[in-house]
Fold this sequence. Notes:
Elements: E1 2-7, H1 13-25, E2 30-31, H2 33-36, H3 43-52, E3 54-61, H4 71-81, E4 90-94, E5 110-111, H5 117-128, E6 161-163, H6 179-190, E7 196-200, H7 207-220, H8 222-225, E8 229-234, H9 248-259, H10 272-282, E9 287-292, H11 312-323, E10 332-337, H12 342-345, E11 351-355, H13 361-371, H14 383-396, H15 401-414, H16 423-435, H17 442-458, H18 461-471, E12 477-478, H19 479-485, H20 499-508, E13 513-517, E14 520-524, H21 527-538, H22 541-556, H23 569-584, H24 588-599, H25 607-610, H26 615-622, H27 641-657, H28 661-679, H29 682-699, H30 702-718, H31 723-739, H32 743-756, H33 767-777, H34 781-797, H35 802-818, H36 825-845, H37 851-864, H38 869-885, H39 889-905, H40 909-924, H41 932-947, H42 953-967, H43 970-982
Parallel strand pairs: 1-2, 1-3, 3-4, 4-5, 6-8, 7-10, 7-11, 8-9, 9-10
Antiparallel strand pairs: 12-14, 13-14
Helix pairs in contact: 9-10, 10-11, 13-14, 13-15, 15-17, 16-17, 18-21, 22-23, 23-24, 26-27, 27-28, 28-29, 29-30, 29-31, 30-31, 31-32, 31-33, 33-34, 33-35, 34-35, 35-36, 35-37, 37-38, 37-39, 38-39, 39-40, 39-41, 40-41, 41-42, 41-43, 42-43
Amino acid sequence: MKDFFISYNKADRSWAEWIAWQVEEIGYSVILQAWDFGPGSNFVVEMQKASTETERTIAVLSPDYLAAEFTAAEWSAAFAKDPTGEKRLLLPVRVREYEPRGLLHQIVYIDLVNIDESTAKELLHAGINLNRAKPILKPKYPRTIMNQPSYPTTSGKLRLHIDTNQIKQPPELPFLFRKKILRKLDHYLSSDKVSVVGITADGGVGKTALVWEWIKKVESNYEKLGITDIFAYSFYDRAKGSTADTSTQFFDDSFAFFLGRYTPESGEINQPHDRALYLFNRLPARSILIIDGIESLQSLSGNLRGEIPLDEAMRDFLESAAREQDSQKNRLIAITSRVPLTDLENKRNGYRSIALNNLEPNEGAALLREIGVKSTEDELNTDEQKEKQMELASKDMDGHCLSLILLGKLIVSHFHKDPDIKYRHEIFEISKEEKEGEEEEEYQKHAHRIMRYYDDIVAKPSDMVVLQMMGLFHSAMTMEQQNALTKAEFARGFKPNRWAAIAQKLQKYGLMTVINIDGEEIWNCHPLVREHYRDKLKEDDKKWVNANQILMKFFENFFHNPVRLPQNRDEFVHFYRAIHHGCLAGQFTEALRIYDKYIIRDRGEGYSTNECGLAADDVAALDRFFKPPEFLEPIDTNITAGDLDFLWGRKAFCLTCLGLLDEAIKNREQERDFFIKRTGDQQTVVLACEQLSAIHVMRGNLSMARESAEQSVNFSSFHACGEGERERTLCRLGAVFYLTNQLKECGKVFDEAKSYAINRPLISDYGIYYRLYKLDIAETDDDYLEIQRDAIAAWRYDQKWLVPRALDLVMQAIATYRMQNGKDAEKKAVVIELFKKALQDLSKSGSVVYLPHYYLAEAKFNIDVRQNFNLAQDSLTNARRIAVSHGMRLFSIDCNLLQTRIFLGMENSEAARASIRKASEQLGILPCYYCLRDTDIALLEAELAVAEKNTKAEGLLNQAKELINNSGRKMLGKRLKIAREKL
């Protein structure tokens, strides 16, 4: 039971959040609607639970409080428990001028009206403590608090908490033509019908400049707008060209900004869906969240173009926001992308889109004039004729904003004595020859033409050095990185004392901007500018390689202590960058050494994934060793066949963890074919086929899973592989036999596998199917006890690996509650604790593909033992969400079968029948029939007939009995017996 329920009216949400924060800060637990009631929940039910499952109630008093529909019931429930006030179960806190009447008038309240925040904290802390001022509970927040809800003073003064460091300031430019869009953003911010706005445009049209201008506008007027928090995050700083990207860092940074800590403390909110809802439910009312450049998470082609198909957390976060019309004004999520957000277009209750178009000729002309360009040719006698020259120039640039800015600044700076638009002909003529034959995006070509003129006519060698330095990065460049690059061959003879003069010149030409963050000077430029000068440096292979070698060493030695290993995501990023630059330099062996030493610690530990859940970051690093765009074939290097085997295997493992099963299958197939055709390394082929079988099982391709498993068994037998390889291959084949209801063959294969696992149980993730098989044929408590002991023994062997360790805990939990149905209180508590530890391990690993095993087992426990169908439904919903998102068809079928049991428990026969029908339809379209579930469906149909008192029940029970006897699944015999008793 929690300590306090905060009862408030929505007009006082900011006060309620501030009070809740202060209460939790000194160790009490709190239930608050804004933080704890998720989307789709029943408001009345949640309020009832909150008022009954908390010891005391804090009523936030204001003129709106008693006028609200539900607040009277909330405070009166607490008053009824303690009408004399002796236990102080109802604690009123007055936050606005208002004199309570009736019963509330009799209770002494804490008065926070017209006092400063420090005094308010003291009064609140003193008022909630029943005895001494020392907290009853140990404080929960020992970490440094970076942010907390702003104190909502009665004077109306608000304090702004802002972090825009992620979005680097674009080059300075006149902002003339987006005023309508800025006003539209202001309108959406104050609207109670809009939660999310998507801004779409090609590169260089001005998306980042628009949101930057809006941020500055809001910042200068935040009190009037009622804004307390502005947070901006950019995906443009992430290195591109990977098969996996992730929103993990976005959520970590968002939690730190909005919630005051690096990551949420509970392991239960480390899964993508939970993280999404956690942030969505706690996003402050008076806040702006900017997400710039989200296209790195979107599908950029095909039927899924514009969707966020595999980043579950970001998709769920934005869809949750877009589904809801925002009852809290002054809160908005603004997203920029080069691709329309089709996920949100289909859920547009609270979503609006803005297409940012190129400038019209007259707008482009006005932009050029504002920059300082003129049209002063003698033969032009009228303003209208002069203006046509400007409009023609704008039309030549297709109204592309960045190109016009570069053109205008080049003319004004280079032809400063006569900044006439006529010089555009000279610029285009000189760059025309090089432009021909190039394949450039339409929106890129004009900007590159102008930069080529700058390179050939205007730039000095020192300018090119700085610009090419910036081209080496995917984000802004620090002075420390600049200084490191002065040792590069392309910077030979460069004098760092020229930094200031060069920066001033490049800013004048619109090629870069200099900003100051926490006293450090940062240089940044537009991605198209960075791309242009990266390509210029690549033209000299020797200098390109040398520069990337220097950066590889720079990032590897970032901590200036070669003994120190990275401990968290912020520290890991430097070593990922070292790998990136090492591969660009062609130093693949060195890059692999860095990956071994710092990222995974050694090839048997996998530290980055097992301890930090960095599977997506690992894939992005590993992709550097493979050729784009498919990232399947390795780059031709001196890396040994053993190292290539490791890289393929490690990448497939990380892709599988992320639920990118089709990509993992392609990766394993490429590895298998490579080693069959080129090296003849049969041991590697055995491993590739064995792992390929495992991924096909998850994907539901059972015929292909069997083919790969049999191939791995045959190879391992023929080539006399080691005992470990033989054990694994047999286990994979046993898993396929289990899933296709061939339990006799399954038992024989697993028995043979165990003969190779001398003096230990079957371990790792393949051991789960052995224990599932044993659970299915178990009949007595002694059988379950043996399985429990086997799972405990496997858990001891699997301590280094989070996923198998978690699965062993799940198996322990199942075996424990199956003994005598696990209905005594002590056994229930043990099972609940085992499930909790398993979820913590799976959450920590960052792996999603094994979570359905966990959630389905938890749902069955909630049905069979706790008989709590609401909890079972919650578990099942989580399993179904993951199975559908990642194309795990077998788990989708299992979800529908289990859904039927929940509906039967809730006595909803019609819904139960629909679930059986859906499962049967899914079974019919699988490439290989999921035979194991024939028995389940037969039993469910019999149970449904018994529940409906159908005359066919007896016959259906007999059919189910025959299938159960033939399959040997004694576990189902117990349910059959219960159904007969009901009949």
